[in-house]
Structure formats: C-alpha cells, structure tokens
Amino acid sequence: MAKVSRSYIMMCMLFSILLILGHSVEAGKVRHFKWDVEYIFWSPDCEENVVMGINGQFPGPTIRATAGDTVVIELTNKLHTEGVVIHWHGIRQLGTPWADGTASISQCAINPGETFYYRFKLDKAGTYFYHGHYGMQRSAGLYGSLIVDVAKGEKEPFHYDGELNLLLSDWWHESVHHQEVGLSSNPMRWIGEPQSLLMNGRGQYNCSIAGAHYGNSSSTKCSLRGGEQCAPKILHVLPNKIYRLRIASTTALASLNLAIGNHKLVVVEADGNYVQPFAVDDLDIYSGESYSVLITTNQDPSNNYWVSVGVRGREPKTPQGLTLLNYNTNSPSKLPTSPPPVTPIWNDYAHSKSFTTKILALMGSPQPPKTFHRRITLLNTQNKMNGGYTKWAINNVSLTLPPTPYLGSIKYGLKNAFSLVNPPENFPNEYNVMKPPVNPNTTAGNGVYTLAINSTVDVVLQNANALSENVSEIHPWHLHGHDFWVLGYGDGKFDPTRDERKFNLKNPPLRNTAVIFPYGWTALRFVADNPGVWAFHCHIEPHLHMGMGVVFAEGVRHVNNIPNQALACGLTGKMFTTRAANHTN
Amino acid sequence: MAKVSRSYIMMCMLFSILLILGHSVEAGKVRHFKWDVEYIFWSPDCEENVVMGINGQFPGPTIRATAGDTVVIELTNKLHTEGVVIHWHGIRQLGTPWADGTASISQCAINPGETFYYRFKLDKAGTYFYHGHYGMQRSAGLYGSLIVDVAKGEKEPFHYDGELNLLLSDWWHESVHHQEVGLSSNPMRWIGEPQSLLMNGRGQYNCSIAGAHYGNSSSTKCSLRGGEQCAPKILHVLPNKIYRLRIASTTALASLNLAIGNHKLVVVEADGNYVQPFAVDDLDIYSGESYSVLITTNQDPSNNYWVSVGVRGREPKTPQGLTLLNYNTNSPSKLPTSPPPVTPIWNDYAHSKSFTTKILALMGSPQPPKTFHRRITLLNTQNKMNGGYTKWAINNVSLTLPPTPYLGSIKYGLKNAFSLVNPPENFPNEYNVMKPPVNPNTTAGNGVYTLAINSTVDVVLQNANALSENVSEIHPWHLHGHDFWVLGYGDGKFDPTRDERKFNLKNPPLRNTAVIFPYGWTALRFVADNPGVWAFHCHIEPHLHMGMGVVFAEGVRHVNNIPNQALACGLTGKMFTTRAANHTN
User: Fold this and answer.
1) Are A168 and A145 contained in the same domain?
2) What share of chain A is helix, strand, coil (3-state, %, to 5)?
3) Range of the domain at B389
4) What tens digit of pLDDT does each residue of B407-450 get?
5) Most exposed among A104, A430, A475, B122, judged by the fewest C-beta atoms under 10 Å?
6) Nearest CA to CA, how far is B123 from chain A (Å)?
7) CB-based contact (8 Å) between A403 and chain B?
8) Which residues 123-162 of A are in CB contact (within 8 Å) with B?
9) ipTM of predicted assembly, 2 dp
C-alpha cells in the first residue's frame, strides 16, 4: 500500500472524477417540477367553466427537456374528493412502468391531499404530451405539452429556424361527472359533439375570430383584446424562415384536420419518430397522435394566414378552431385576405387514408423483426350489456378496470385481483364486420394478455359495424410503454393469407397511436421488451370509459422498485396492511 | 364421566340453548345491508340533475332497526374517481370509532371500486339519519333516514297510533364540484341560496303544488300525477289518531321551520333523546337536528292540511317546501281550504330562541355532572386567509383536514400527520364579538383537542360578527361520538361569572347538535367517555368546507380492532407498506 505513488493516486482520482462527469453528461439533467392539480374557474372558449388545472393554469405547464434527462414531477392532489394520476403519453417508461400514470394498471390513484413522485427518463426526443388517465379527467382539462429536444451534440435530421407548438383538444360545457353518468346509464346518453375545439387550451364559443368578414358566414366576430383566457395564441413568424410546428391532439373525441392558408405542411415527425418528409396541404390528426411539420414562411409578408382545425370522421357540429399565422411584418390583428381553409368533408375517408398511408419511417429508422411470435386479432364492436347498457368490446369483452393496479397484483401473484382467464386472441370466423352484431350482448372482463418477454407481437385491429346499420367509427388505438410499427391498413375483414403479403416490412412508421378506419383493419408489430403492464386502448375517452381497451403484461417479474405508495389501494394495499399487522401483533 | 346422568346432560344442553337464545335477544339482531353508491340521473325538484344515490335510489334506503341491533353496511364505491364515506349521524359508535364515517378523522375515504364494511351497534332508540362526510357529498344527495325503535319489551314514554317520517334537505342545481371550487376560490364565490327545499328528497322548482289557488301567489301549479320523482310524498292519516312525525334535517345550509295547518306539534324527542313534551304551532330545525312530534288528527276530516317548510335565519330566496297531510276521508289531491302556513319571518330570532329554550330533558333522563374538568371556549369567526380567501375559523384556526385519518395517526403515534401544537382553548379577552374582526387574517390548522378519558368537558360556543358589519349567522354545531347537555344559551359575549350561574343543571336536554344564535353563545357539557377521534363542527356543509370545525381525541390508546383498510391512505398507509416491505425484503 505504502508503495503506491502519489501521482498514481492523483491519476486514479482524476479518472474517477472524469468517469462521474462523463456519466452525468450521459445521464442528462434531473429536472424537478412541483405541480398541484386542482379545479379552477377558467374560460377555455370564452364561457366560464370548472376546469382541471395544474398550478392554477390550463392547460398545464409545458415540460421542455432534453433526451437523456430525468424528470421528477412532485404531483400533489389538491382535488377535494377525487383521486388523480397523470400519464406521460409517448414516453416508454423504460425501467419505470410504475410511473406510466394509468390508474388501475400502473398505480393507485393519488388520494386527495397526497403527493406522488413521478420519476422517469426521457429516452427519446420528440413531441409528446401528458394527460389524466383516471375516469374522464383528460376531458376535464388535465393535460399539457411535453417536448423533448435531441440530446446535446445530436442533430435533428432536418433544419428549422424557429419552433411553434399547438396542443389540440375538444371541449364540452357539461362536466365530465355528468358525462360519465350519462355514458354509464341505461339507456346510455351520449356526450354529443364538443362545444368547441381548443388550440393550446383556447377556443371561441358562440363567436368567431373570423366573424362574418368573408361574407359566407353568419358568425358574430369575437370581441377579444388578446389578454382573455380564450383569446387565440397567435403564431408569430418572420418571413422566409422555416418553422417546426409541433402538433399534438389530446381530444376526448374529435378526429381533427389542420391546415394553414397558403402554406404547405412538410411532415417530418410522428409520435416522437422521424418520418420520410412529405408535403400536404392539410393534416389529419387523431386523438393520441403527435406530428411535427415544417412550414416555410415564403408567402406574401404583407398578409397574415389562417390556421384552422376542423372535425373529421363524425358529422361535425363544432365550429372550426382558428388562430393566425402572423408574419411579423403585419399587425397581429390584421385578418387574412382569404377565408380560413375549409376542412375536408367529414366522411371523405379516401382523403384520410391517403394522408395516413404517406407516413413512412425515415431511412435509417429501426426496422421491424421480419417475423412474429404471436398474432392477436382484436375485433372492435359496439354492444349491449346487462339488458341495455351500451358498451364497446374487444373480441366481445368490454374492459372494466379493477380497483387493484395490475402491476402490483401480477408482481405479487394475487389470485383475486382480476380474471385469470386469458382473453380471446381472435373472433369467430363467421363474424360479419360489415353488419351490426347478430348477438349484440357482451360481458365485462378484466383479463390480461400476457406477452412473452422480448417476443414479437403482431396485433391486427379489426373494425366492424356498430350497433346501427351502416355505421362504423374511427378508433385511434394507443399503446403504452412501446412504439409499434404500422405494417399496413386495409378495408374489410383482415385475411392473413391475402393481406400479410402486403405488409410493409421495409419502412413502416414507428408510432404509439394508430387509427382503424371504418370497416377496416390495421396491422401493428412490436417487441414486448419493456417489463411492465401496459394499456392498449382506443384514445377516444368515452370509448375507453365504455370498455374499449385491453391490457398487456410482459416480464413483470423483472420489475423492481415499484414505490409502495403506487400500490396502497385495493388488494395490494390489503396485502401490505395485513403483512404489517401480522408482524406487529 | 360415565356417572353423569343422561337427564343432567339434557338439562345442561337446554340451559346452554336458553343462554344462547337469551344472549341473542339481548344482543339484538345483526342486520345486513349491501349498498352501492353511484351518481344517478334524478329529478329531486322536477329538474333533472346528477345526484349521489344509493342502490339507484335518492334519498338512500331507510335503515329501520331496533335498539341493540348491530348493522353491517357493505358499502361499495361505484363512483368513477371519487372516494366516499358515510357518517351515521347521532349514532355514538361506542367501541367502533372507526365506523363513524368521517374522512380524514375516522377513516380513509373508500376508493372507487372498493368495498368497506361499516359494522356498529345501535345502542339507543331514536330518529337519526346518515350522510356523506367527505368534501360536500352530503350536498350532492348522499343521505337517508336511520330509525331505531325501542328494544323489544321496552316502551316509548308516549303513545301513538301511527308513524310518519320527513327527512328535510335543500337542493342546488349547480354541482357540488362547482360549489367547492367557488368556495375555495379567491375571491370566494358563495353558493347562494338553494333552488328548492326537499321533503324526503322531493321538491318542486319553478312550480308549486299550491299554485295560485289561494289568490295571493303567482306560482304556477305543478302538473304532477304522483308518480314523478319530484311528486310530494303525501302523509296519509286516519282521523282522530295520534301520529308520531319524525323530522330530521340534513340541509347543506338552510335552517328550517316546519308547520302543519291547523295542527299542533307536540315535541317529544330531540336528536334521539326524549324531551319534556311541549306543544307548538311550528318548529325550528337546524341542519343536523332531528325531532319527533306528536300530532293529533282531530281536525275537520273533510279537509286536507298543508305541511310547509320554509327558511329561517337567512333572507329566504327559496320557496317553501310543501306536502299534504291527507285525512283518508278525502282524496289526496284535494287542496286544503286555507293556504300553507306562513313561515315566521327569517330574522325573528326571538321566535327561534323561544322554541329552542323550550326543549328540556324528560324527567328521568341522564343528568349532567355538576362540575366540569375543563372548559374550552370556541370563538366562531369569519376570516380572510393568504391574501383574500374567505374562511371560517375557531379561535382563529381554520380547520384543514389532513390526508391521514387522525384515528390512525394518533393510535400509531405518527409525528408528521397533523400539527402537534394544541389549538387555543380560548380567545383574547378584548375581542369584540359585536364587530367585524379588527385583524381578519387567520391561518389554517389541523391540531387536536386531546381530552382526558372520562373527564367532563364544557364547551362554550361563542358567536361573533362576520366580516361585514351587522352580520352574524346561525351555526348548528354537531358533535360526533357523544350526546352533550345543552346548559344554556345567551346573547353577547359569554361571561363565566355572570352566565355560569344561569346554567340549567337540572333538566338540560341531551343532544348531538346545538345552535349558536347570532351574536350569542351556547354552553355544552359532555363526558369524554368514548375512546376515539371525533369531529365537532358547524353542520352547514360549506361552513365546514371553509374550516368551521375542531377535532377532539380521547382515549385513543383504548381503541382496538381498527380495520386496516380504514387506514390504508396517507402516512398510516405508508407505515403499513413500509413495514410490510421491511419484512419482505
């Protein structure tokens, strides 16, 4: 020991310090956020209402961080009687499945007055958002943007001079409590179409910022000075620059289309993954999706231009959401010379499909395994239950979430927390997806699809006719904990021998949300490489409320360090208290 | 052994059977109830709304049992995101303080999807009720009647031929979630006066069952067939009989006055305790109180008579609640010849005091100890907090309940669950109760008054001027876990030397709720002989929400058998999970 030279020790120390520094650069920063969730009075669309806000704001604060950063959100529930959780939509939660923020799946809802620490790593740059995932609290206004920049020293595969952000949502005047009762009643009372569309939480009800300016509308012009909660957030730009416009949709129901007058949209990112750039005049975006588009401000700088958002896929009864692209050469209050872009007609599905199938992975993106280990076919149907309740079901099982989070009940091997019967992998061959169900009855269930760890899973989402003749709806399905490759879309019933050959295995886009078109199917592939329990569900919030989802579990035995607080309810809570009591008494 | 004769064995067996039978008679029956709490669409006042119901009913089912019975309520929370508890108002919960149903005090709120078993003994006959005790869920409609008959073989100290029951409440069209946000906002938004008064959950908004029949009203007559949810529950009687009319008030706000045209009301019971019978034309009833009155149907049997309920103590903006006393000699639809009894003018406090001071214990009732061990004087003030929030405070502390139930945190000696500083026993001598507070600022607190077990405690409730000049409100204070003797009422500031001499120690009424009149005081005495933690608070729900309450703890070390589920939240929940983890890892 005595022989070890002083310089050797110094060298060792220096090396250690470098190692630590190196590690800290690699690991990214830790970013702390302290959030209180509470109801606030707010006027999202110029009509005052009660909104679920964070730190007194609606929408919640934008999280901006760098790939590799760890974020810690110290979330305090300041609601009076409601639990709360927040889901970090698009973040895979590698190694932290308990931080996924899905009540009944990854954790117990946080009790009023209590604080929960979400701690997770942002592994990948991209445009994300966060939202409530308990009851219909997303619809109540619990959401915000989450934007992850590329790690230091890395570059995006495209250039831009500036950045703009639009978080899209839809808004009802009736409280979500009221909506939930209606959906759960017999007969079901549908929530109807939203009163307004919001861009960054701002919309205008019963008036329009375009007014009757273009002669073809009877709308009253809103009298807004710009400081109101419902005043549109204007997108300020300089001429002859390239802007990256980030767009995410956290709508409860509406499928949307966005267009900017006179400006092409060059799509470069979808759900946090780079795509082969392509230009469009308008962009379809479904609930749960996000995009980045590049726009070049190469139009007449003496004009401003409309940014318009309208409803697709359902007969729209909601006015367009509007804001302005303001060239800084003009006053922001100068109205564009032309009226807002017209949203393509709601049922022009050819237009939607044309857009969706243009989305392909950027060259160099991860490619899917060429084969799969297991294929799960999920038939989406609308059904009746217990003598009249309206439900959505998957392979004739309508998901009813249990009070004990799956992550805990699977980890601890509890036998009575949920149905241990495996849910069906397919549906009867004779089912006619073009017609209403012959037997519309369904049953509630909460079974789990257990996936072999690291196996490749194909999911074919099969759409069908709803309860009424000639009705088939759009459903955007969102997978937690993973991105999947979208191998293909098709019309009618999926036929493996015919359709599998057409799968795109070369450059399918990686996404976390994919739509099924009316009467169509969508084929996905993912690798079950993220130990945890993960929701896979229609992102339309009332549809999920009515049972439209399934649960995947993979490698739960590898999950460690679940905070006990995340499991202090239901049967895991009981397990803890019983164990504690046995050791105390 | 072989020498024991057969007849001796038979005798022993018979004796044992008799013993078991005898015990079972003495112990009373065990009555099971299986309840689901959920929101339902309901029209309490002919306007449809979302109401918190039990088993699809509003109000919840009436519990009818016999003194000595044990009730077991298997309560399942079918709400989507809200916790729930139920308080059994007037039941002392001897030996079962964990079943008192007060969130943050006796238990954790029951999580959505979970079931909690309330199991407690009905130790005393009387007219009681139950209601939610979390947030403002009582106001949302979570309540019902709880009627306990005298034990078999025992007799009431009065005779009657039949029985009628009226559970009184007030109803708002705005949701309690909205109301709560308003109360918690800065500036505070007051909930306003109720839209309607309900009798057994039935009222009429925007119409009257009396209509313009008597010429002095412009009300529209309600067109009701009788089957509607809002159709009044008519009180059917036979002529020349004596009826016991049970009346309880679970209003959120309104102090009420009840009268029956042409009929005297003979008061015989208050809050489950017999009182010296006295006759009145009308009866004041504050939130949290219950009465039994005897009525003799000795009026013209060819007529029906109005039962009317109106608002006292606040300038009424709510129409009278009405139903009919129907002599079975008539059609129930026959309107009385005279208009409904007029409610005494709202601020005729002399009338109220005259009624209240008539209430005296029936001879033979338990008498109070002649001396007390400790006197706690509680000044009730309206205050401002944190730069503008409006609060109510007691000795300048505004109660903010902690997330961990006191019963658990005290039992397990947790140090950080609530403030360990003793709350003040009195208020500054120079405080002028006739004027608004000189310094209106208050602070939030959650300290506990720890009472020596079996000690006699006097509480003097001292009213004062609110924030505005010349305003002092009525507050009905309700004590959990005990009845107290009401020793006296007085005007102005309580002066021990002057006022103590006037205490009624001979036949003060035993009650669980007592009112303080504007600018007045009320003196109570009780024996702290029920191990547990007990809320003592203004029964006006928005006042409690704004901090108007205190917490008493007594002999918690003697409390055993708290179900772990009751403590599976907050720091007790954490304690259990940590202990369990320590023993597992």
Assistant:
1) no
2) 15, 35, 50
3) 374-572
4) 999 999 999 999 999 999 999 999 999 999 999 999 999 999 99
5) A430
6) 30
7) yes
8) 134-137
9) 0.93
